[in-house]
Design brief:
3 domains; binds flavin-adenine dinucleotide; alpha/beta; five-stranded parallel β-sheet
Length: 355
């Protein structure tokens, strides 16, 4: 069996982002890398979106970028501008293609379907798999979306809708999310924040059809792509091993109150690459600092106990200045911005959870 200097377990978003960052920074000229990935082929499977608060390597994979968005609760809509930190959507198909085309030029990089095909004894491992990924009783952001195409110009592609809470909540937290890629094409997702035990929340197709046909009033459309997924809103467990760093969602890169992960993965990849020569001795990378972990923990406790209050809580959060709320949700806020967000929260509901 072949030995490698580095092994990446899981060639998904985090594994490939790291391999790409290492490659473009010439860190794999004299080092070998094995990527363990069981999938047979790479094709578009996800749509990664985020406010662009930092530069990243994938500008050429951006499907669409917006400077404006809305958030709705029944009877009220807030319009928010985000020109300085546009909201970008990455097409995972383009992302995979760009990275695979770059990696295959380097003979030191090899793909394998199974970890048993390589000798892991003396390698440094970057692992994107976790031990408790299937804990259904915990809190998840679970969702499904249709990308639809219409004959007529029905969407305003200058503005996207981040959260539309004007829908059945079923004693949970539920909203629709609409990304208009053009006047005739949009991705519409139904999103729940709940455990995965309640099957009645998971008739996504019915929810989407009902929203598109009766709420958006679009009767004639073609579904060109579907996306279904679940992001764990709890820390994934992983046995700590020497010579191993966990990456991606399994490495704690998901912001638990929002599910946003993509840019955190990019920052982690840059940190590992910068310190790769002596990575064993470098301190653990923390992008989601104790401050955010503490605040998110309280937020999620409030969410679990008071799902009926959450639409108003999210809405009020967005009454802060756009840069304040975007920085806060993207882990880039300063002390004053944190206070501004905290001051918008209903005091007693949160204090009860702190106590
Ligand atoms: C549908 C969806 C949409 C999302 N949208 C957003 C978004 O808009 N913005 C955002 O910031 N975040 C988003 N996320 C969250 C997060 O960015 C993604 O989940 C991201 O893909 C996480 O990267 P990862 O490398 O940790 O996991 P993955 O990308 O899932 O990679 C894990 C890889 O491991 C492979 N694998 C599985 N089993 C094995 C095995 N036994 N051995 C080796 N490899 C294995 C898988 O095939 C996969 O390629 C989304 C998540 C999902 C599921």
């Amino acid at each position: 069996m072949r030995e490698f200097d580095y092994i990446i377990i899981g060639g998904g978003c985090a594994g490939l982002s790291l391999a790409y960052e290492l490659e473009i920074n010439q860190k794999l000229k004299d080092k070998s890398l094995a990527i363990i990935e069981p999938r047979e082929e790479y094709k578009r499977d996800k749509t990664w979106s985020f406010w662009k608060v930092i530069d990243h390597n994938f500008e050429d994979c951006v499907k669409k970028s917006w400077d404006n968005f809305t958030i709705n609760i029944p009877g009220n809509t807030k319009h928010i501008e985000c020109k300085n930190t546009p909201y970008q959507t990455i097409d995972s198909g383009l992302f995979y293609l760009k990275i695979i085309n770059t990696l295959k030029k380097n003979k030191n990089i090899n793909f394998f379907k199974n970890i048993n095909e390589v000798d892991i004894k003396d390698s440094f491992i970057f692992n994107s798999l976790s031990d408790n990924h299937y804990d259904k009783s915990n809190l998840w952001q679970h969702f499904s979306g249709f990308e639809i195409e219409t004959d007529k110009d029905l969407f305003d592609d200058k503005i996207f809708n981040l959260m539309d809470f004007d829908c059945d909540q079923k004693n949970s937290v539920h909203f629709f999310y609409t990304l208009p890629f053009s006047k005739k094409k949009a991705l519409i997702e139904t999103t729940w924040l709940s455990d995965l035990n309640n099957n009645s929340l998971q008739d996504y197709e019915k929810q989407l059809k009902d929203y598109i046909e009766n709420h958006l009033n679009i009767k004639k459309y073609k579904i060109s792509f579907t996306e279904t997924g679940a992001i764990p809103l709890f820390d994934l467990r992983n046995e700590q091993k020497i010579n191993q760093i966990n990456i991606g969602t399994a490495g704690g890169m998901t912001r638990l109150s929002t599910g946003y992960t993509f840019l955190n993965i990019q920052e982690h990849s840059k940190y590992i690459t910068k310190n790769i020569e002596n990575i064993k001795n470098h301190k653990k990378f923390t992008i989601i600092t104790k401050k955010y972990k503490y605040l998110d923990n309280i937020f999620l406790k409030v969410l679990k106990k008071n799902p009926e209050k959450m639409s108003k809580i999210f809405f009020k959060m967005f009454l802060s200045s756009p840069s304040t709320v975007i920085n806060f949700l993207s882990n880039k806020s300063n002390f004053f911005e944190d206070i501004a967000i905290i001051s918008k929260m209903p005091k007693w509901t949160f204090i009860k959870e702190i106590i």
